[in-house]
Write a structure and sequence with these properties.
24 strands, Formyltetrahydrofolate synthetase, domain 3, Domain 2, N(10)-formyltetrahydrofolate synthetase, globular, 549 residues, 20% strand, Rossmann fold, alpha/beta, single chain, 3 domains
């Protein structure tokens, strides 16, 4: 089979105005960025304000392998399949980060015959949104250090500067740094750190803001440091909000592209799900729901991470009600959880799927399992998973959207439509915001992860006390945790029992509007692997990029 890049390059793309027309967007409501990508003007909401929402379908998965389970590919393939069945459908996925693209996973535009295109543009610089977020974030960091350099009227305790710098590349050596060296002309020395751009609070803010006023309000609440008497210093205090908003003005507008089969797609925002909330922008989701019969979106990693955060943070804020969930599984991921390669390992590995099914059932949403078929999967292996789902009375479909595009997702699309029409969603949140910080964390840990208990470091206990003093304790929770296990230990596969979750600290994302408990050894700045994907990427003599996947 051809490579993803070859398939993408050979695709016959529609002009972006044709894609917009398919989506129900007028020519004067888009700002073209070349022939095949565009920004959508927010003035469109004035025209479609009274339209009813279509059906909201979330695609999630079990705890993945390092290579991923093809969740994005399946999201795209499902949208193409629904279009083949005559449904008006739009999909929404996150913008890829250069960290994974150059690191372990490669790009985030799907694969095979289920891709969003133009693939090279989307995986690399796209429309500049990542750059805008990086610039706005680092502007605030620069203004903070500049304020300290010129006298520091707030009397900031430099041991409690909590605003890092960001970069959209995995670079472990930047996790802990010292800045301001070189004498008085070069600033005031202090410890600092770098995070990857998708972990920036500004990325979360961009993806949760509904308009420019909302964006500015959220930016103003960002906490960057604390004074010696423990008072927060904010972006508003540093008079940073206007300039940050100017840098983010165009990034707030959704990006419109298409799939290989010409289905309209919003690719907008890129928060990771293991260290942030893991879903594309709320503004593009609401736009897609207004324009389409079916809006398909994804949440990063497993149901205990991206899906949980989508339900408890995004849906709560946006007043959204999901109509169905698609649970993606692969034979290789189930084998990994069963720690083997035979049928017995698959049966054992199904314990992980069992927990993720339970997680979705906690929220009262109808569920279908999609088996993403890879080359080498045997019929008898797939039958084990199918029989398990049938025994659980969970609809299941085998998908080959990588190999066949929308045609390979027809069974899934048909069963999904039937599920939505025959089974009503009784969506509910997992916790009430009025619960204490510990009660909310422990509900997530027990119900979503299956943990026995949660333990807190001294620093975490102090953070909880501080959140209460600042009136932030009623915010939702966005746990930073490994994606590879239900626990906070990536080596505990399957469905572990009798484990604890350790909260090391709690970060306050006051602008985004949630608290971030840091668990296990999770870091907001990934490192590159021994053989990064970047080693394969080059530009040939004709100027074409090669090796991108």
């Amino acid at each position: 089979m051809k490579t993803d890049l070859e398939i993408s390059r050979e695709a016959k793309l529609l002009d972006i105005y044709e894609v917009a027309d398919k989506a129900g967007i007028r020519n004067d409501e888009i700002i073209p960025c070349g022939e095949y990508k565009a920004k959508v003007s927010l003035k469109i909401f004035d025209r479609i304000r009274d339209k009813k929402y279509g059906k909201l379908i979330l695609v999630t998965t079990i705890n993945p392998t390092p290579e991923g389970e093809g969740k994005t590919t399946l999201t795209i393939g499902l949208a193409q399949a629904l279009a083949k069945l005559g449904k008006k459908v739009i999909l929404g996925i996150r913008e890829p980060s250069l960290g994974p693209t150059m690191g372990t996973k490669g790009g985030g535009t799907g694969g095979g015959y289920s891709q969003v295109v133009p693939m090279e543009d989307i995986n690399l610089h796209f429309t500049g949104d990542m750059h805008a977020v990086t610039s706005a974030h680092n502007l605030l960091a620069s203004l903070l250090d500049n304020h300290i350099h010129f006298g520091d009227k707030f009397h900031i305790d430099q041991r409690y500067i909590v605003w890092p710098r960001v970069l959209d590349i995995g670079d472990r050596v930047l996790r802990h740094v010292v800045v301001g060296l070189g004498g008085p002309k070069h600033g005031v020395p202090h410890e600092n750190s770098f995070a990857i751009t998708p972990a920036s609070e500004i990325m979360a803010i961009l993806c949760l803001s509904e308009n420019m006023d909302d964006l500015k309000d959220r930016l103003s609440r960002i906490i960057v440091a604390y004074t010696y008497d423990n008072k927060p210093v904010t972006a508003r205090d540093l008079k940073a909000v206007g300039a940050m908003a100017a840098l983010l003005k165009d990034a707030l507008k959704p990006n419109l592209v298409q799939t290989i089969e010409g289905v309209p797609a919003f690719v907008h925002g890129g928060p990771f799900a293991n260290i942030a909330h893991g879903t594309s922008s709320l503004i593009s989701t609401k736009l897609g729901l207004k324009l389409a019969e079916y809006f398909i979106t994804e949440a990063g990693f497993g149901s205990e991470l991206g899906a949980e955060k989508f339900f408890n943070i995004v849906c709560r804020l946006g007043k959204l009600k999901p109509d169905a969930v698609v649970m993606v599984v692969s034979i290789r991921s189930i084998k990994r959880h069963g720690r083997g390669g035979d049928l017995e390992a698959i049966r054992k590995g199904l314990e992980n799927l069992e927990k993720h099914i339970e997680n979705i059932q906690f929220f009262g949403i109808p569920l279908i399992v999609a088996i993403n078929r890879f080359n080498g999967d045997r019929e008898e292996e797939i039958e084990v998973v199918e029989k398990y789902c049938e025994k659980k009375d969970i609809p299941v479909a085998v998908c080959e959207v990588y190999q066949e595009g929308g045609e390979g997702g027809i069974e899934l699309a048909g069963k999904l439509i039937s599920l939505i029409h025959n089974k009503q969603s009784n969506f509910r949140h997992l916790y009430d915001l009025e619960l204490s910080v510990k009660e909310k964390i422990e509900l997530i840990a027990r119900k979503m992860y299956g943990a026995d208990r949660v333990v807190y470091s001294v620093e975490a206990e102090q953070d909880i006390t501080l959140s209460e003093k600042q009136g932030l304790d009623k915010l939702p929770i966005c746990v930073a945790k490994t994606q590879y296990s239900l626990s906070d230990d990536p080596t505990l596969l399957g469905r572990p029992k009798g484990f604890k979750i350790t909260v090391r600290s709690i970060r306050f994302s006051a602008g985004a509007g949630f608290l971030v408990p840091m668990t296990g050894k999770i870091t907001t700045m990934p490192g590159l692997p021994a053989k990064p994907m970047s080693e394969r990427i080059d530009v040939d003599k004709n100027g074409y990029i090669i090796g991108l996947s």
